[in-house]
Amino acid sequence: MLVSICLSSCCSTAFGWGMKGHDIVAAIAANNLKPGVAKKLNRILDGHTLMYYSSWMDFIRKDEPYQYTATWHYANIDAGETYESMPKNPTGDVLTALNEIISKLRSGTLSDSMQTLYVKFLIHLVGDIHCPMHTGHLSDLGANKISVTWFGKPTNLHAVWDDMLVESAKKWSYTEWVDNIDILDRKRKQQLATGTPADWLTETHAVCEKIYEDTPEDSELSYQYMFDNYPVVEQQLLRAGLRLADILNSIYK
Length: 253
Ligand SMILES: [Zn+2]
Prior knowledge:
Layout: H1 19-31, H2 35-44, H3 56-60, H4 94-107, H5 112-128, E1 147-150, E2 153-156, H6 157-169, H7 174-181, H8 186-192, H9 197-214, E3 220-221, H10 223-251
Parallel strand pairs: 1-3
Antiparallel strand pairs: 1-2
Helix pairs in contact: 1-5, 1-7, 1-10, 4-5, 5-10, 6-10
Bound molecules: zinc ion.
Zinc ion binds near residues 15, 57, 58 and 128.
InterPro entries: PLipase_C/P1_nuclease_dom_sf (IPR008947), S1/P1nuclease (IPR003154)
Protein name: S1/P1 Nuclease
Organism: Alistipes indistinctus YIT 12060
């Protein structure tokens, strides 16, 4: 799943949650849409589900018409920096992209085809902004340069958090993930769904810094790391799914 590329503008080199993670985020969102909103989205997505498009942005990022979105999947914040203080990527990052997409969707001025496109962007990027290593350090390309082993196989810390934790901990379908983790009561869900994309980025970056602290270069990761960190993965996927639902419910109410 992990594909390494080095963009001339320099930056993170992976996709975000693997396909499973993005499907789970979309499925949690779908599970929390108001019925009228689900109906409108079904029309906007031409009969398709949110899950159908959850990873679409990763597939088209290198296609010429969509190259402008290549840097929208992450915001690499170096050690000692904050999002506010860090040098901004001139081609955009996950926060600038999300703010723009949400504001355009709220404006109600998009053509039908642009609205479809922006909803597809939104479904994916709300997942990415909750993906811890997508706020990783610029100096190590979001931990792509931090070598570790995962059950004895050489890999890097970014890949562990994008894919391996989600894929290894449970062999659930996205539906089974929803059944097992989207279990909070209404009040608790509302509390989790609060905040702005800027708040979520800060929160994700705090999770990311803790991961750096806990996972030095050349760590040999296996069961203990999986058990210790699995709740963090669950938490980030749930936050993303509930927040995506909340944005869509407020735009299409
Ligand atoms: Zn992505």
